Structure formats: structure tokens, C-alpha cells
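Re: the pair you flagged

First of the two:
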Amino acid sequence: MKFKYWLTCLTDISNAKKKLLHDCSITAEKLFFMPKSELFDILFFTDDDRKIILGSRASYDVEKEWILFQQKDIGFVTMEDEAYPDKLRNIHNPPYSLFYIGALPDKSRKSVAIVGARGRSAYGCEVAKVLAAALSRQGIQIISGMARGIDRDAHMGCLEAGGNTYAVLGSGADTCYPKENRFLYDKIKVSGGIISELMPGTDPQKMFFPMRNRIISGLSDIVVIVEAKKRSGSLITADFAMEQGKDVYVIPGRITDTLSYGCNSLIKQGAGIIYNIDEFVSDITMTGFTECTQMDFRKNILDKKEALVYSLLDFCPDSHGLPRKPVRCGRPQWCGQIEPCQSPARTRFACAPLCLPHHTPAPWPGKTWPRVLFCLAARV
């Protein structure tokens, strides 16, 4: 585990590249002891990546840092471990590792995420608590983000019903945010778990909250939105859920209510409607949940022109007029993978760091591709 913790500490190496290492059976320990020459055979590493790894190997005390971490009494799991949540393995850009206090969600049980507006109404508060309690009594785990408003109400409703609830934070697992939720934080540690992909001690930042939303939806089988404004962060969770193939349900509201705009717009896009909590709970417990498998997000969100551009992209940079260095690996190909940007915006980016040959024909007459870093934005 100490080498996995070392790789986790390399925060400048993206989750996507860490997953590629895992897919190619390159463990953290193997990477730590890999000769410098072999690092250049990993074509999705940039020169900066190699400098980070080599510099860390020279200065990082693996034993000391691992002992210091163990003293914090925080759980740690990576995608190399069997305990890693299976649901997260199937999402786009899964976190390489998770830190947790308490426990991780039970793999054998179903989970529902309940999220919504921070400045919710009294009605939204009541609905979130009643819904979470009703689901909990059926043995369903509740996932949320422990934010003010609907998130807090969902956690409380679950705890009051004696259920298990899990909070995915936009800070380190050992950092309670917001501070007024300390009582809730302490209860969740006992009756569920506090989860974060961020290093312990990390303070909350605005950019971390949209990032954690993919984990909230990823850990869940169904996502429920209870009140959301036009630009609510809850809509980001809904976007991630739809990308991951999860069912999204909403609580409908009055068209004159700003807190209902987000939910009503999701209904327009085809989200399910919860018009009776008892019937909803009965339906999903009797009919079961849709099993989600890994999706090729490019097939689901790209139109024909965007797909054409992607078809011309390759993960390996092509130098000016020089032959491309071949991939020297018989395991799953490293080329063709798409690395996600850590963008906090609702528009998430899929980046392919390459330069196309100047002779590559462009999809428009009389033009050629520029030698630039392509960054394609795909709204999901």
C-alpha cells in the first residue's frame, strides 16, 4: 500500500494516466522501481510527468510517509485493490484512490444519491428527509455531498431512519465542510462513511465540488434531484449520472419557482418524475435497478463532426516530420485513450495531447490541421 500511497501523492499525474497504468498492469511499486529508460516507453507520459516521477523517487521517503499517514486513522483504497467500489470502475475518469473515514458503501446493496439546492425551501427539506428515510427503511444506502440544504436533509433523513449514508466531500476526508455540519459529520462516520479523492488535510476549494459530483453519481444506482436553480451544481451531478448511464429522477415544482427550474428542465430532457414517494420506493425496490456498464462517452455525446475530429486524434504526439515511436507494449493499447481535464465548469473537456501531421487532410477544403494541442469540449 505504501507505493500506492506514493502514486496518489503525485497529484500532478492525472487520474486518467494512473488508470492507464493500471490497465497496462503497471503497478505503483513497479513504477517506483522502473528504470529511467523504461519510463520513456510509456508514451502517454510527458517529459514533465517523467520529471515529477524521477524527482519524487529521489526525495520521497516511502516508509516514513506511509507510517505518518497510518497515524491519521484514515482508510485508503486504490483501483488496484479489490475493496475499491466496483461502480466507480465503470465511470469516465474514475478516481485512482479514495480516502475514507468509517466505511465505503456496501457493494452488495443498492445506493441512491439525493442532491439539491443549498438554499432549499421548507418543502424541499421535508421531501428530502422523507424520501431518504423511506429508501433507508428498504435497506438502500443514501449518497450525498454533506453540503448545506438538500444534501444535509438527505443525510439526516437517512440517519433518523437508522440507515447508512455516505458523504463525498469537496475537501480532504478529515476536513469537515461546512463547519456547521460537524454534528452530521461525526454521525456519518459511525453510520456510514466520509469519502474523498483528495489528500487528507486538503481545504475545500470551489473547483473541487463539481469534481466530486462524478463520484456521488458514480457510487449510486439512481440519482434524485430535489430542487435546483438554473445553474445549480446539482445539475452537474445529473449530467454525470446521465453520462454514466444512471437513471435520474426529479421532484417537480411550480414553473414560477426559481428552485424548480433545474428539475423542470431535467423533466424536459427525459428525467423520471417522483410524484409519490411511496410509489417511487415501491417501484424501484420491486423492479430493481438498472445495471450500469461502462459506456463509450464519445458515442453518446458527440455529433458526426465531433466524432470525425476524434477519429483523427491519437494519444501519441507526432513530431515534425519524424517517424512516430511505436508502442512497445503487448498489453491493452495506450494510444487512443482520452484524458479528461479537471475542469470545474459544467462543460467538461476531453483532451488529446498530440500534433497531427501537416499533411493530414482536414474535413474542410483547402485547409490542413495546425500543429497544436487539441482540446475538444463536449457538453455532457
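Second of the two:
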Amino acid sequence: MSKIKYDFGSGRSDPSTFPVEKLKAAAVKAIENEATFLTEYPGNLGHEGMRIAMAQRESEREGVEVDPNHLLLTNGSMQGVTLSAETLQDAHGDRILIEEFSYPGTLSAYRNLKFDMQGIELDESGMRPDRVEEALERGKRDNRLPKFIYTISTYQNPTGFVMPKSRRLELIDLGKKYGVPIIEDNCYADVHYEGPMEPALYALDDDPNIIYLCSLSKILAPGFRLGYIYSKPPMLERLLARRSDAGSNSLAAAITAEFYKDGIAGHAKVANPVLHEKRDLTLRSLEANLGDTCVWSQPVGGLFIWVRIPDDVDRSKLWSSSREEGVAYLPGQSFHYARKDVAYLRLAFGHLTPDQISEGIPVLARCLNAARTSNESRQFESLF
């Protein structure tokens, strides 16, 4: 197998914007100031300074007061995904609602927990409320209401879609009507390029059945393994009671809290323009090379572009030939809740160099065109 030269598969940020010197200085200060605390276990909520910094982050972005004592630090957002699910689960086979296409890590976690996942159809505004209500009504009739609804409402992975405020309010109302908690995963929120930012669900309603997950993996680096859950009592107490580890990484939290004392916006102002340029370059390259063949999303934030490819593409051949040519991507099947083989692929652009993007998209386009089994013109104009 050829070495992967153009890795559009991995959803990471730009390594050139990783703030090495500032983090070194923050690490020295954190260790000097918190040596005693670092010799202790962090407790179920986690490092107080980090919780205060993240509460400030949320308050500034969402425009509502966030209590740091309602934040629970986790070892990355995936721990939040599993902890919240385990808290709400009664038994194997419990039904849950999730977007038809979602993050593979979450899908894998829910499969391992043996949930009965019900995929909810998407459009370009995200999860469709009418389909959510149909699923909830079926669950009510069957006496099998879902244990929760999981959504990535902002810069959805893999599609990049943003759920508008009106739809968020509909989703909240449905959750309250049927008594079903909502887990909102907002790990891409700070990777914003243009246009208005939509509010998190908790900023629209103080319903304690809203569980909010967030992470620093995309705006800073996944290696820090820092995330958090924001939840109000009594749900917060249920989460804390279910937690069984010794707490989150205190050293990483102390360093990050020191780094973000002046707020997260400063780093975002450095990182996001670089990512914005890469997004634009990827979109231009797609238009130049696949404009007559494929349709793709136009994300206003996040790290991903969702591409619809013709049905006549031999997807197995495309996968193997692309890798032989040094191009990696993730196929649509990786994101489908039921592992359905669908005519989509996801491109991640964040950690690639501009040259890799400019060179890699034409290679992918050649592989895609060679994998087609007919010469028919494109039969679709939208993503769905």
C-alpha cells in the first residue's frame, strides 16, 4: 500500500497554529502555582480553574450565565458521550434517536453499549423535527420512548450543517413534550468562520434534561484529552453518581486554564483564519475538479466537507485506488448509524497544508472518475 500523502480522513486542526511557546509558559506557571493541588485527586467535577475558564468561555459565546459548579470535566468529549449515555441507559436494547449520519466514535460507543439506534433523517438544516416527532410518537405507542436524543447541532460531523434557532427550539419542545432528554454535542462550536452563530440548546431553555458536551480537541489539540459536560441539577447529580473514574487530567487542565486566562477567543483568532483559508481552498479545488460530478456542503465552521458522489461510482474501487495514489478520506458508510453503504464521502481539511489540498483533490477526482461505471451526467443537484 502506498504511503498516505494527502490525508483528508483525519479531523484535526492546523498544527502550525499550535501555541507551543504560550503553552510552555502556561505549563511553568501552572506547575509552580499548583504543585500541591497536582499531588491530589481532582474530584468528580475536576480542576476548579479549568471549570471557571470554560464557564467563561461558554458565557461569552452564548450570552448566558454559566455556573462553573455545573461543569464536569472529562477526558475528552468521548468520555462525556459515554458517561451521559450510561447515565440515561436502563438496559441493553434501549432505544435512542441520533442523526442518520453522525460521528463514528459516538456510533461505536453506542453500539458497544448495545443501544437500539434510530437514525433521524437530515436536511441542510440538520436533524428534521418532523422525523423526530414521528419517532417519538412511535415510541410512545410502543411504550418504548427513547432514552435520549443525541445531536451535533453546530457544524455537524460529517455534514458541517448548522441547525437554525427555530429548529433548535422545536427540538427542545419535542424533548419536553415527550419527556426525553437531549444530549447536544458542541465540540466544533469555536471553529467558526463567518455568519451568525446559533445558540446552544441550554442557552435557549433551562430544562435540566438538556445535557451539553464540549471539547478542546478541535480548537486546541486532541492530545490534551480535555472536554466537559454542562448539566443542571438534578441531572448533574445523576451524572456524578454514575462517574466511576478518578477524575480528569489535572495537569492538562491546570495548563489549559492558565493558557486561557484571557479567554479562548484569542487563540481562535489565530487558528480560525488559517482554517477558513483551507476551507476556501478545498471548496475551490472541488469546484475545479469535480464541479460537474459531485455536490458538497458549504460549511461556515468546523473541519469537514460532506460530498455526495454519483451512484455509479464503484465505491470499493474508489477506496482502494485512492489509497494507492496516497489519498485518504472517510466513506459515507463510516458515518451511517446502520453502517449502510451510501454514495457519500467526508473530507477533512484542517491539518493538511495548502499544497496538499491543491495537489490531493485532483488526485481524488481522477480516482473517482476512473471508478465510475457509466458516463451519465450528474442526476442530482442537492446533498439529499
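The longest strand covers residues 210-215.

-B.
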